[in-house]
Design brief:
It is a single chain. By secondary structure, the chain is of the alpha/beta class. The chain is built from eight helices and twelve strands. It is about 35% helix and about 25% strand. Helix 3 packs across helix 5.
Length: about 250
């Protein structure tokens, strides 16, 4: 089965629309959504309605820190993120807020753990930014595979049975076998606000039969999203950063 992993959509309608079409065209049979559907971007209500529709069709959705903040209030965010969450909370319907409030922090699915941030303490929203953090997250998980978001940069870490951790930087379109003799952490990147210098939306397809994962980048209409961010009165930097992918 081909499983499409999407994360950090951040209310970016154009990016999500492009990614869903790309994944379906490549045979995605199931969607796993790793959190942060809102925040930063201009289309929170549409995004949640779309995610809820996917869940109704069998997708799994995890809660992210921006989703939690939209429901419960800002805590520890920078000024741009806090301003965007305040605006977002006022755009969301009661049904969408209720949907976000009921999302789980993590889900175990066969040999896979789905979590937005670090697996050792999902509620603390710790960033997995290096090998030490990746090891900590992997060692805390009970599963062979961990799929996460939060950092907006795609990466893979493999942990051997003798404790050697190897980082990989995935290249778009190139299949990476998640070999059975290792445990693996896959950081999926971001649909709606990539931060690796590439503005194209990012997601990954995992084949649970061949145990191969392929990361994809999908160009989308960045200008339209940026214009909507400005029109909503959100911080201008949230628009300009989309063009640079940072």
């Amino acid at each position: 089965m081909q499983i499409a992993f999407l994360t950090d959509i951040h209310s970016n309608r154009e990016a999500l629309t492009a990614v869903l079409a790309h994944a379906r065209a490549r045979g995605a049979q199931r969607f796993v959504l790793l959190g942060d559907y809102v925040g930063y971007g201009p289309d929170p209500e549409w995004t949640i309605e779309t995610i809820a529709g996917l869940v109704a069709e069998g997708a799994i959705a995890i809660r992210g820190n921006h989703d939690e903040a939209a429901v419960g209030g800002v805590n520890g965010m920078n000024s741009n993120a806090a301003q965007a969450i305040d605006w977002t909370s006022r755009q969301l319907s009661k049904a969408s807020l209720d949907f976000l409030s009921k999302l789980p922090l993590s889900v175990i699915d066969d040999d896979r753990l789905y979590v937005h941030a670090d697996a050792s303490a999902p509620h603390r929203w710790l960033y997995v930014v290096d090998g030490e953090a990746a090891r900590h997250s992997l060692e805390a998980a009970e599963t062979r595979l961990v799929f996460s978001g939060h950092v907006h940069v795609p990466a893979i870490y493999g942990l051997s049975n003798i404790g050697k951790l190897t980082p990989f930087r995935p290249q778009p379109g190139i299949a990476i076998p998640l070999l059975a003799q290792r445990r693996w952490l896959a950081l999926i990147g971001s649909v709606g606000q990539p931060r690796d210098g590439d503005p194209a939306a990012g997601y990954a397809l995992y084949n649970d039969y061949s145990a191969e994962i392929v990361f994809h980048r999908v160009p989308y209409d960045v200008e339209t999203t940026a214009q909507k961010i400005r029109a909503a009165g959100l911080p201008a930097g949230l628009a300009s950063r989309l063009f640079a992918g940072h």
